[in-house]
Here is the input.
Amino acid sequence: MLLQLPLFGESELSVHRRRTVIGVVAFVGGPALVLGEFSDAFLTCADFDISGDNVPSGCRPGHASPLG
Here is the structure.
């Protein structure tokens, strides 16, 4: 369904499918936005070091999280 939108445009999607696409995007995008905004609450500088990413300024010092 998500591929139908860019391939065929929204005019060919039924109202039900359009609402489903919007719901799926909101269901995935909403929590992703919140997790990205508050990543400093559960990620430390060591987590970025271990993954090979650049350590952002203002990250929380500490050991790598056990989830990684």
